């Protein structure tokens, strides 16, 4: 297990955060989820609250990109017109590469599997679950307020994550071929997933 | 673990057959892979060798279906013009449902995860691997002759499996959301995958 960086991609409400956090504790390595936002805020110079808000609501980047560049008549360097979403993404890329360079850790979300694709010491995990499990998990964690249409919000958030991943990686989010291990947390439970990942790390092929 | 039916879908050369076979031995339950062909042959009335050949080379079923039916002027019962591919598929559906009805077992391939989707006692696994692993595994098992373009043949076989699965299930083959557990056998090795699946079965959520 020593020397492994574990990335966890996850559906909203699947318990990926809890699984990653518990796994990091058991392995005694640093855990990064929303901490990356704070670091990316510092990196990019934006206010943290602003980055947090943008992180969950950014989309249509490509069209926005083109429209913004065109609105300036396409003059000058493209980088000078780089939209917020791209600025934040590249700040996160820098932060994630730096964290991975420091040694073993668990990183949740933010295309970390793709960003670290050239490293040989990374184990990529994807966690998904059925809607009943995701809804229950979100309600228990107080992730959405009473009266919210929880199912709709979960679907929208997953749609955003899938689109975001596809846009920056040109890969399909949740396609098993891109991960070493994919788990249905509604089948195994949070604790069960942590144990399976721990077992998997121990039994890993030496070549990886 | 008692009472579970395990379906294993797998890329060509990923070791899915070996993993399933070893798993069945450890769990002391029946194992079905190509045995299903023999049973489907009996069920459909076709010769086994003919079924085996058709199983790896059938495609374009929909177009063939329509063209064949149309060539008879669309008269009579559609079932009477059902093409070979569909006749064999439905024979396999019947065989797989009967096998599952007999109790715990391991079934490899043949859309078994989809065919048994209404049962609550099924654990669905998908095994994939990188091309280097798949090539090595196929050569070691003598699956292709010397001089064959092994990579091309592996790709063609996986393409056929993906198309076949998509046609009969309207699902994307290898999309993690349809399986409880997806494993990269080039990361964990054959033995490692067997152990992870065993561990996963033990840690399964009681609700499944």
- Uncertain segments of chain A are none
The helix/strand class of chain A is alpha/beta
CATH architecture of chain A: 3-Layer(aba) Sandwich
Number of strands of chain A: 5
Sheet with most strands of chain A: 5 strands, parallel
Question: What is the fold-level CATH name, i.e. the topology of chain A?
Answer: Rossmann fold
Q: What share of residues of chain A is helical?
A: 40-55%
**In whole angstroms, how far apart are the ends of chain A?**
11 Å
Overall pLDDT metric of chain A: 83
Number of structural domains of chain A: 1
How is this structure best described in words?
The structure is a homodimer of 208-residue chains. The first copy, chain A, has one domain: P-loop containing nucleotide triphosphate hydrolases (Rossmann fold, 3-Layer(aba) Sandwich). Helix content of chain A is 54%, strand content 11%. Chain A has a five-stranded parallel sheet, sandwiched between helices. In chain A, helix 1 packs parallel to helix 9. The longest helix of chain A has 20 residues. The mean pLDDT of chain A is 83. The interface between A and B is medium-sized, with 29 and 29 residues. Strand 5 of chain A pairs antiparallel with strand 5 of chain B.
